[in-house]
Amino acid sequence: MKYTLWMLICLALVYPVPASKDSLCDIQGKFTFNALYKPGDIVLGGIFIAHLRAIPPDMSFRSKPEQWKCEGNASQNDYHIVLIFQNSFDLSVFQRMQAMIFAIEEINKDEALLPNLTLGYRILDNCLNLQMSLRAALKHIGGLEDSASDYSCQGLPPVVAIIGDPVSSHSVAISRVLGLFGIPLVSYSASCSCLSNKQEYPSFFRTIPSDIFQVKVMVEIIKHFGWTWVGAVGSDDDYGRYALLSFNEEVNKFGCIAFSRTFTANEREKMLQIIHTLKQSTAKVIVLFMLKSEATLFLNEIVSQNITGKQWIGSDSLSGFPGFAKNENFKFFGGTIGINAKRGLIPGFENHLLQIQPSMDGNNNLLAQFWETMFGCTFTENNTTYLSSKVCTGKEDILNTKTAYSDVSELRTTYNAYKAVYTLAYALHNLIFCEMNSSILCILQQLLHYLKTVSFVTKSGDRVAFDKNGDVLPMYDILNWQRADDGSVITKVVGVFDGSSTIGNELALNEDMMFWNFNHGKVPESVCSRSCPPGTRKATRKGEPICCFDCLPCADGEISNSIQCLTCSSEFWSNYGRNECVPRETEFLSFEEAMGITLTTTALLGAFISVAVFAIFLFFRNTPVVKANNSELSFLLLLSLTLCFLCSLCFIGKPTDVTCMLRHVMFGISFVLCISCILVKTIVVIMAFKATLPGNNIMKWFGVSKQRSTVLLFTLLQSLICLIWLITAPPAPSKNTKYQNLKMILECDVGSVVGFACLLGYIGFLACLCFLLAFLARNLPDTFNEAKFITFSMLIFCAVWITFIPAYISSPGKYTVAVEVFAILASSFGLLVAIFAPKCYIILFKPEKNAKKALLGRSAK
């Protein structure tokens, strides 16, 4: 009891007892409201939307303006509101009012919560009008009169807090006013994310999650089904604008917005333009963030224009009204996905609803209006705009009715209103039991502090607590509009969103329970452009969102991940479908293939012939033909030719580090040895001619030992070049992918181009020098025409390697190596045949010419 007295003393300190009548604030007029009222020690205010339209007064400026009136009936020809039910009194909202009253009555009966204190209520109807909402708020905080009280006015607080307003834009305006006085506004339905700004709305709290979370749920659903091309339509108010702003921002992170538009109930032309855009759009998924009034107009127009094949996603203000899809409208809106606050249970609430009785009390005139709407009658004593020839008796049986009022199977917004009362009750309870010796003054502002820290569990087991922004933990049910067995349309829970779960696991959907109204009962597809097939990439269309694109094929050697083309690594190539990199087929001049066998056979044949000639010369080594012009050089030349033939075998087969180095070294040294021998033989021919001149003893300066030394010197220089080359940058196996796509040529990279050029250049220099000397000595007298044969052989050699260059460059793949082997064999055969064939012919077939007598006779001639 002492805590109760302490609370009353605290309130009296803020609102002193009434002074004389002369000290009251002056008022400019009185405003009447449809209301429900019950006095108490502490009164809680409420603002609800019982009627869905307010009629403004006539502003003729010839008489005092009348008050705004709430319309009882909605004309079917009036565009502004074409309701799905004829009377504008909303039975579901009256159920929410009763939830507030029921919660207060429960608290008053609870001896542990606010003991010895009685809560009262004053519930006002704002008729879905901002001006009426502001006036209702001012009436709540202003007491018996209708002007805003300030701290100079006297009296106890009429209400300590207000529950409502359900409309976000109304709550924004009211919160700015109430925030000046520190009076809490606890909304059960205003979900605009803008209201989370505590700097602008310090006294605003709500038991419905912020639209930030609702947007997150919608986005998670859209991502879950792979929808990347969606349209969005909203109310042109704080609720719709802020929701669409957040929604567009989140969707653009992974998809695209086909269109995003807002309108109000008074903007028919704008609404028709939006619907025209919707019809033209290829987006199959349409998200709606709009109030019931705009939704009614919008969806009715969808039906009028026969727009089907759209998957609708409705926000919490719309998803709880599956009646939009009843009867023939099911083909338009069946399967709609809705997001709404978690369904709650209120034990004993249904009995409370069925015990309501009408009242003619002016402070509770909403009871009479409810009764008239419920039973389609009129109280003759009640001043109402609902006209009916049937007279209400007050004895009608409410137990036999089945309306939105008595339906407690889907308590969502109603449950939020119920929780809002308890949040205030627990905050007041904690305030009463605050430390009496505390240095903090016990003023009404402290109620905000206790609201921020309130935490309790409802009778149905749900925890209620506010975060730093005055928002509750997001808990949503995912709804699906389906047809029940009796033909009615119901909202079926097909999933949940639990904000307390770990990131990525908040959404849980049961797709087997979901109904899809088109696409043969399968999940609809909503994309601007289908995903690119394998082997193609996205090419964004100019001036269109990134979700709208064309699919262009990837180039050869590239594969796609359906977004972009990726180049395969050097050892791989794209397959035919360009969706996988496959290993390239390796290719090299093999010993097993026909060309390799042919070249190998030819090389071995050349080597065999060289050995055979060597054997012939060895057998006939004492004959004039062999002994002429230094037989030792002839044997060395045949040995080098044998090496030339055999070195070509190093070019055949799979390249390795050893074969790559060996092929170029053997090629360079063997050919230099060969040409050096020919060059020395040419020099010997020239000097032999010079030695025949009288008094010329030149041959003693170029004897056999000098000839050997010259050959050795030329060969050592080439060996030195090869050694430096191998040390600095040796040849190595490489994989050539330039010439063929699906094949990889295994070849030997020369390593150092300079080294390779020096090797070839040195061979070329010796060959040119040898050819030049042989050409100059071609007409010199010689017993066996040695100079002419050397000239001819070097001509063949040079011709082969000159023609080799363009053939080598133009030959692709392994044929490059084949051309090189062919040049080696051709030049080797040219030297072998041109130099040794005439001698072998004389030795084998003209032995008479190989006699000393014949040689002397030829010399005499």
From TrEMBL:
Subcellular locations according to the entry: Cell membrane
Signal sequence segment: 1-19
**In what way does this protein cross or attach to the membrane?**
Multi-pass membrane protein
Q: Which GO terms describe its cellular component?
A: plasma membrane
- A GO molecular-function descriptor: G protein-coupled receptor activity
Q: Which Pfam families match?
A: 7tm_3 (PF00003), ANF_receptor (PF01094), NCD3G (PF07562)
Chief subcellular location: membrane
Cited InterPro entries: ANF_lig-bd_rcpt, GPCR_3, GPCR_3_9-Cys_dom, GPCR_3_9-Cys_sf, GPCR_3_C, GPCR_3_Ca_sens_rcpt-rel, GPCR_3_CS, GPCR_3_vmron_rcpt_2
Classification via CDD domains:
7tmC_V2R_pheromone (cd15283)
Q: What is the top-level taxon of the source organism?
A: Eukaryota
Transmembrane intervals? 594-620, 632-654, 666-689, 710-730, 750-777, 789-809, 821-844
This chain belongs to which protein, by name?
A: Extracellular calcium-sensing receptor-like
Report the family membership. Belongs to the G-protein coupled receptor 3 family.
Q: Which PROSITE patterns match?
A: G_PROTEIN_RECEP_F3_3, G_PROTEIN_RECEP_F3_4
Keywords attached to this Swiss-Prot or TrEMBL record, sorted alphabetically, are: Cell membrane, G-protein coupled receptor, Glycoprotein, Membrane, Receptor, Signal, Transducer, Transmembrane, Transmembrane helix
Q: Specify the G-protein coupled receptors family 3 profile domain's residue ranges.
A: 595-859
